[in-house]
Amino acid sequence: MEALIAKVNAFLSQFCIVCKVPCDKQMHMLSGFIIAVVLTPFIGAYSILAVSTIAILKEIYDYEYKSIHTPDFWDWVATVLGGILGTVIVSLI
What we know:
Elements: H1 2-13, H2 23-43, H3 46-64, H4 73-92
Helix pairs in contact: 2-3, 2-4, 3-4
């Protein structure tokens, strides 16, 4: 499973935008955005709450497995910002 995750991360990191935002944070924003885009048509603005909950659970998981993951508050922030952006865009469409 870890090998599969490493391959997916390597593939996705090819699409990181070259800017001052680290690729890891860009991937968190993208994840939050995608989750929000999928959920917003069904639960509206509550998708932000869902994204926030998923992101904090992921960071708790990372904290529990520090030997192979790195918990980071800013990962949570980036995921939630992506979720807010996705919710706003879908709501405006």
